[in-house]
Each structure stands twice: as C-alpha cells, then as structure tokens.
C-alpha cells in the first residue's frame, strides 16, 4: 500500500480479536499469557545470575583478592556514555565495599589515543605502581596491550562486549568477561551491563555469601539508573536482561542520589516523573557522549563518581555547554552536507559520499545518520587530517555498509563496523578512486525499491481502541528502542473531522479523526505541508503510534502519525 510518504508493508497481525496490547505482543512472537505477563512486568529477580557470564565470578574473586591485599587497582574505561557509566558503576561498588574512595579511572583521549587499551598506557600504569587494571567496555581486541601487561607483570582483567578480532586472537589476561565469546548469550549486555554483572559477582565474594551485605545490595540497586543510561545509549537490543536493567533503571532514575546525575538532569530539565527511554537517548546519553567527542570523557566520569554540591553543578553545566556546542557543530555539518547534496544532485547516485576538512570527526557519524533522514541513501561523511581522511558511514535497511566497504578494501587504510554503521579511513590520494568504487558498488547493489522508506505496522486496529487505558498498557511494553521498537498500529477508513497546522510556519499537522462526539487528536510532526490534501469528511488510512498526552493535568490517548494514505481513485 502507498501512503503519502512511505510504502506500507502488510501488518504482522491482522485480526482485531483480543486486546490490542496482547495482539501486538503476539505479533512480536511473545505468545502465551504467562509470557505476556512477564514481559509487561519484568522482575529484577529474573535477571540472569553473574555465574552465567563467562569469567565474571573469576574476575570478581581476583578483584576482591587484590583489594583485600591493599594492592593498587585501576579502571580502564571508554569515552562514550556506555564506557563512562560502566567505569562509574565499578567505581561505586568498589568504594562501597572498601569504604574508601574508589580506584582511579583512566579514559583514553578519543582524538590522540583512540579506542581501546593501548600498550603505552599499560607501561605507564606499571611505572605508577598499579597492580591490577580492569577494563570496561573495551579490551577484547587488546592482544598487544595484554602481552605488554604480561611482560611487565601487571595483572589485566578485560570486561567488554565488542566483537573480537577477525583473526580470532583474544587478549591473554587473568580473566576475560564477555557475553559473546563462547556461545550465543542470553543477553547481549552493553559494556555497562557486563561491568554490572562483574560488580555483582565481586560484591558476593566480598560479602562471603551469595547474599550480599546490606550496603552492597543498596549500592547495586543505586547503580541501576547508570546501567540503564549506558545500555540505552549503546543501542544494544533491549531484550532479556537488558530490558530488565533498562526498565528498572528508568524507574529508579528520578529518585537517584547520585549528585552528578541529579545535576545533569537539572541541566537538561529532565522531568521528575514518568521517564522513558527517549529522555536518555535524546537527553542524558548525547550529553555524556559529547564530552568525549569535544573535550575529555574524564570530566563526565569525575561528575558521576565523586563530585558534589557546587562542583557537581558547575561540572554539569560545563557538560551541558559542550553538548550545546556539539549540537551546533553537528547542525552546521548537516546543513553544509545537505546543501552540497542538493546543489551537486548527489541523490542521483544510490550512495552519498562527502568530505570536508573543516568537519569535526567526532560528530560526522551522527551527522551522516541525520543526512539519511532527508535523502534516504547510505551516507559516508569524512573529515580531513593531513594525508588521511577519517569518517563514518551510516546505512539504510537492507544494504550492508560493511560489505560495501569490504568491496573497496584495497582503497582504504582502515575500516570496521557492521551492516548499519561503520568507521573508515582513506588516504587523501585514494579518495576519488574510493568514491567511484563505492558508488559503483552501491549503484549495482541497491534496488530502486530499497530507496523508498517503508513502514511495517505490528497490527491493525479500529478507532474505538484508541483509549487512555490502551495507551497506558502500551507504555508498559517499554522501554522502547533497539530490539523493542515502539508499536505501530494501522487504522483503516477513519474519518477526517478537522485538520490544521501548528508550529513554526505550520511545520506540523494537527488532525482530528472521528466524529464530534468521539474524536481523537493526531499529530504528524514535520508534515504540515500535507494538510491541504485532507478535507473534512474524507476517509483515510493512517499508521501511527498511540501515545499518552498530558495537557493541564488531563491525560488522553493521542496518535503520533507516521503516514497517511488518501482514498484511492
Ligand atoms: Mn559499549
């Protein structure tokens, strides 16, 4: 079916029997009534035990032994929101156990050191008298750093969730805590989820019992908001253990006592009640990610681990300022790129590749993702650095950017990533050859229909089902994100009662469907231009998300439209 802006695929569920939420769950393969109950109300007690995560208990025991012996421990983190929260979680649990400030945390500089554990840093730690290094959210590829550690007698524990090296070599270290090494894991934890499981295993060994001490148990509970932030920020599938951690962390976030987190939420005006995953993915996570891109992530780690009072307030303000700067830099890149796409008619090709020495390489990835929203073509944006161009690629559904880059491997210096997103570097002298090679590959491998945006509704429904109670039930399916998208519902032949536009220059469409005594409000963001196509009394089909709207204390169900199909003929 053809809508005004997308092609509609057949809904997965096409019956209107049973309650709407149970139809959606069934359409998503969650079948039995018992499965429905436990999905809508995931219990913290059903989180998998750390004994199920390879090496978690072993790592917890080593950490315990070193701390008890008074040896020097260091946490080695990563500079994104996942790495920042993972470092902070481990810090707090160790601090609570030892009743002392937690261990030092080392975060590499994104620009000068890059991702992962570098052997030079390991050498420096040994000189500084560190006995044990625990990595979080990085290290599975650090084969050389592990060799260096062994050579100089430093103990290394790696906790990570990234893909091991293609040659299959793993770091030779005291323990390697990683959910995906041996077999298909139950939960694809983020770095922070892995750190949390290790922290839990450590707390048990420290307590000398499966039942951890009261202080540690409270601390582990207090860490859940940080775990939710890293998990949602890192875009791991919100299934199984990740769903439990994200759900509980979001629930506990408004009542957090972490001074840094409170200061960040104050800067962002995060509401005190009813938080959902978008408050993290569009608020807290970009703020934490910005600091590593434009300054140094250690600022965020300090804030989340030990700053308090006015120091926390001013540090949070500094992060919020950096975030605003990042937003501005990103907007400028996007504007600049889109202008170039339009003037040079780059959309005539099936892939868009652009390069500009002035672009900040820390934000080109996010900008590439935003460019896709306007032209819906795989997009590669590169910034310049001497003889080397460095950048990011983002793709559309059904086209593997990783395969595309692999096809021109001999023209690249480095590349890595997956189907939807990748990073790459190319020698300046090879740039033109690379652009023609990847353009040729894309033009040959992308079918025209892949360049049309589609929408796949979960189920069909009737207008009578759009009720406040239904909207509340749907909210219980959250947190939404990767692996658990917000449900999409298709409604056929609904009557247009009134239509208008709202926002700056009539940017958005506001629509009422139904009849005067049974009307539902619908909003179609950024599509005010289509308002003149709708006439009162017309019967249209819509695909939408059902949302709770709160206005002056009154809560109603409302639709966020994704597309409209006009009556045919
Ligand atoms: Mn991560």
Structure notes:
With 569 residues, this protein is an alpha/beta fold. It has 3 domains: 7-28 and 458-565, Beta Barrel (OB fold (Dihydrolipoamide Acetyltransferase, E2P)), CATH 2.40.50.140; 45-321, inorganic pyrophosphatase (n-terminal core) (Alpha-Beta Complex), CATH 3.90.1640.30; 344-451, Diaminopimelate Epimerase, Chain A, domain 1. Helices cover 40% and strands 19% of the residues. The protein contains 18 helices and 18 strands. It has a 5-stranded parallel beta sheet, sandwiched between helices. A 5-stranded mixed beta sheet has the order 7-8-9-11-10, sandwiched between helices. The protein is globular. Bound molecules: manganese (II) ion. Manganese (II) ion (MN) is lined by residues 82, 137, 161, 190-191, 234. The site of manganese (II) ion (MN) has 6 residues, from loops.
Short summary:
The chain contains 18 helices and 18 strands.
Which features characterize this protein?
40% helix; 569 residues; globular; 18 strands; OB fold (Dihydrolipoamide Acetyltransferase, E2P); inorganic pyrophosphatase (n-terminal core); 18 helices; binds manganese (II) ion; 5-stranded parallel beta sheet; alpha/beta; Diaminopimelate Epimerase, Chain A, domain 1
């Amino acid at each position: 079916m053809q809508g005004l802006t997308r092609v509609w695929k057949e809904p997965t569920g096409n019956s209107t029997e049973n309650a709407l939420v149970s139809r959606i769950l069934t359409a998503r393969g969650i079948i039995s009534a018992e499965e429905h109950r436990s999905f809508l109300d995931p219990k913290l007690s059903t989180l998998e035990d750390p004994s199920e995560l390879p090496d978690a208990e072993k790592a917890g025991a080593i950490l315990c032994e070193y701390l008890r012996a008074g040896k020097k421990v260091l946490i080695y983190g990563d500079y994104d929101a996942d790495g920042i929260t993972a470092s902070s979680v481990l810090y707090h649990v160790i601090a609570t156990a030892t009743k002392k400030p937690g261990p030092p945390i080392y975060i590499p500089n994104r620009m000068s050191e890059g991702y992962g554990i570098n052997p030079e840093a390991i050498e420096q730690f040994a000189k500084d008298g560190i006995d044990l290094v625990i990595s979080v959210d990085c290290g599975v590829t650090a084969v050389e750093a592990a060799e260096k550690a062994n050579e100089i007698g430093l103990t290394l524990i790696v906790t990570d969730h990234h893909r091991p090296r293609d040659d299959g070599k793993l770091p030779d270290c005291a323990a390697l805590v990683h959910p995906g090494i041996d077999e298909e894991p139950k939960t694809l934890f983020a770095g922070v989820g892995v750190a949390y499981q290790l922290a839990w295993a450590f707390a048990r060994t420290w307590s000398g019992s499966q039942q951890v001490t009261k202080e540690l148990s409270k601390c582990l509970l207090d860490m859940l908001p940080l775990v939710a932030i890293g998990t949602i920020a890192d875009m791991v599938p919100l299934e199984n253990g990740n769903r439990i951690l994200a759900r509980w962390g979001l629930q506990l976030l408004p009542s957090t006592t972490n001074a840094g987190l409170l200061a960040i939420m104050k800067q962002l005006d995060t509401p005190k009640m009813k938080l959902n995953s978008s408050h993290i993915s569009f608020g807290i996570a970009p703020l934490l990610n910005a600091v590593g891109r434009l300054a140094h992530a250690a600022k965020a780690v300090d804030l989340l681990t030990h700053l308090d009072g006015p120091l926390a307030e001013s540090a949070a303000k500094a992060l919020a300022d950096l975030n605003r700067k990042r937003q501005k830099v990103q907007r400028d890149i996007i504007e600049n790129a889109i202008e170039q796409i339009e003037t040079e008619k780059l959309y005539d090709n099936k892939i868009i590749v652009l390069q500009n020495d002035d672009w900040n390489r820390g934000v080109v990835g996010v900008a590439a993702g935003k460019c896709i929203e306007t032209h819906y073509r795989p997009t590669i944006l590169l910034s310049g650095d001497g003889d080397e161009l460095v950048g990011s690629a983002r793709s559309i559904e059904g086209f593997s950017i990783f395969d595309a880059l692999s096809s021109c491997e001999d023209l690249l210096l480095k590349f890595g990533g997956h189907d939807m997103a990748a990073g790459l570097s190319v020698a300046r002298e090879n740039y033109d050859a690379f652009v023609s090679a990847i353009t040729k590959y894309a033009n040959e491998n992308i079918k025209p229909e892949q360049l049309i945006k589609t929408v796949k509704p979960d189920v069909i429904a009737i207008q009578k089902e759009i009720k406040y109670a239904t909207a509340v039930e749907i909210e219980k399916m959250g947190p939404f994100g990767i692996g658990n998208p917000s449900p999409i519902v298709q409604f056929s032949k609904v009557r247009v009662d009134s239509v208008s536009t709202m926002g700056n220059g009539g940017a958005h469409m506001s629509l009422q469907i139904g009849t005067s005594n049974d009307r539902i409000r619908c909003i179609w963001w950024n599509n005010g231009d289509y308002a003149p196509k709708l006439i009162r009394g017309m019967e249209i089909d819509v695909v939408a998300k059902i949302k709770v709207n709160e206005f002056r204390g009154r809560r109603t169900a409302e639709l966020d439209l994704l597309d409209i199909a006009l009556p045919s003929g």
